[in-house]
Amino acid sequence: MSTPTSSPMPTPASYRNAPTRSVSVHGVDVAYRQHGPDEGVPLILLNHLSAVLDNWDPRVVDGLAARRRVITYDNRGVGASGGSTPDTIEAMARDTVLFIRALGYERVDLLGLSMGGFVAQVVAAQEPDLVRKMILAGTGPAGGPGIDKVTSLTVKDTLKAVVTRKDPKQYLFFTATESGRQAAHAFLDRLKERTDDRDKAISLPSFRAQLKAIHRWGVQAPADLSRIHQPVLVANGESDRMIPSVNTLDLAARLPQGELEPLYPDAGHGGIFQFHDAFVPRALEFLEA
Q: Rounded distance, CA 196 to CA 153, Å?
């Protein structure tokens, strides 16, 4: 096991000031940030398609870190992490377990968003002693309806964003209503709050590898969710276009200890960001129960 390294910095008051650290995982440097108190079971955040450290909403991270040690990280080959990006969810899950072990943790909670939720499900099923509780947001089970359409939808909305000179997340994560547009603008502004030591954007080869992994997850045989025995909180917006919201309802119904957070109204894939004021206290309540 390697000792995590970082530059000396004062304790951050917010995620936007948290130093970027790295830990060697089987010879590959994995970039991560941590924020919040040292005590208790750490909460590992697993990110969405194309996301790097700077794509986590600081209101969500800061809110959770008020009472929990929160750790975000770049998947292998993504952002500031070395190596090449896997093209299967199962390989990403193995990397996640190795990362957690490299930090020295034997028991963690997981919050998986979108693709990160796929990875979290595999980790929880394969490493039941490692995962205590799990939160799944904007995600679905293997073989879930519409997941195999993520690539075409992402390409379409990315091209639309280029033409309209907007961030693709405005279309992919939020509804087209006035409320949705306002929430998108507020979220994108929050992502710009960090001005120093920002992460690298994902490379095109890594983005393609992730799309391939998501497509494979979407066309797999339906998942056996009975293997996941941990308590799981499931959340999403009611109008998720990327991972259709019916998958959220399916997860809550089929997970042995699944709990459904009522779907956020007039919200899409970024529901936990749009409704961070409601999501954060509910997540903390669930984790501390």
A: 32
Among 182, 137, 173, CA closest to 278: 137
User: 109 phi and psi, to 5 degrees?
Assistant: -105, 155
Cα 11 from Cα 274, distance rounded (Å): 27
Answer whether 0.90 is exceeded by the pTM: yes
Mean pLDDT, contiguous 10-residue spans, the chain (289 residues) = 41 83 97 95 97 98 97 97 98 98 98 98 98 98 96 93 93 96 97 96 97 97 94 98 98 98 98 98 97
CA–CA separation, 21 and 26 (whole Å): 16
